[in-house]
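The following block was generated as part of the benchmark described in Methods. Ligand: flavin mononucleotide.
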Amino acid sequence: MNLLKAGCRVAPVRGIIENSFQFKTDKLKKTVFGLDFHNPVGLGAGFDKNALYLNELAALGFGFIEIGTVTPKPQAGNEKPRLFRLPDDNALINRMGFNNDGVTTIKKRLEKHNATPSTRNQTPNPKLLIGGNIGKNKTTPNEDAWKDYSICFNELFDCVDYFVVNVSSPNTPGLRELQEKDALKKILSHLQNTNRGKAVPKPLLLKIAPDLTQSQLDDIVDLAFETELSGLVATNTTISRAQLSEKSTVKSQKIGAGGLSGMPVRERSTEVVSYLAKQTQGRIPIIASGGIFTGGDAQEKLDAGASLVQVWTGFVYEGPGIVKNICRQLAAD
Ligand SMILES: Cc1cc2nc3c(=O)[nH]c(=O)nc-3n(C[C@H](O)[C@H](O)[C@H](O)COP(=O)(O)O)c2cc1C
């Protein structure tokens, strides 16, 4: 990423990078929850946690980028090593633990990015859409979690285009308990009350785990309607190891706890997207995340009812050409 950053500082090099990695077409333009996406392929949360590489990621053609997870206070995250490859299965296991610079620093960075016309008004990427993925600090007890989400929401309000409430990371102890209906209702209601008080409210989405049961998914759907969410992000990483090959299973046992991403989560993510799309009758847009490497994988998620897709593990394994490759295949279909 630092090499890419250095390259993008030199205008002709940036031009070469953009020409090599961007796929230019009007065919993939899409308006979802009131935002105009120049293509439906985004970068999932957790890659640019600190909003350090927005310009460079834009050069690679992403239709949108989700920064964070951002917490109110900076935090170091878990001890290293905390990120592992399982190349036999095109997968990763991570237990990062929301390492980030904290909302104040990240806000300043976003303000600077947004104030620079050359980064905010590029062609063919007229405006890079930025999602703000928000969470709670490790030390904040769950009963006070809503306050952390509110702090991040208020601080980032003017700097991002949409918000994602992350209650589905397996790497902050107890976080996923916030997916339970009452806990979640408290967080989302507070945020929506603030949101409705703004001149122009921002789309608010919820990111969920692939490990939820059907009845938990039903609760999420009820709540999404009740709190008038703009969308759902499905899914985060899984704590299940059931889809791993024998070799990766052995390796994963040595690695220990963490969220599994990539190919092994693809099928379950699609299943969740499909279930949510059916239960919401397509009335709540879904951003699909989980095991997307190719145009075929992206199309599978769109066919299941998603409006947009995000890559993460696929970006690691496929490299910087992933957006172009996916867009080319989607445009050809
Ligand atoms: C190293 C790593 C860090 C991540 N950090 C976050 C995070 O901070 N917040 C979040 O909502 N998701 C996070 N994710 C989850 C991804 O955004 C994505 O939802 C998940 O990995 C499934 O997509 P994939 O199979 O394409 O990787 C992280 C994933 C990885 C691999």
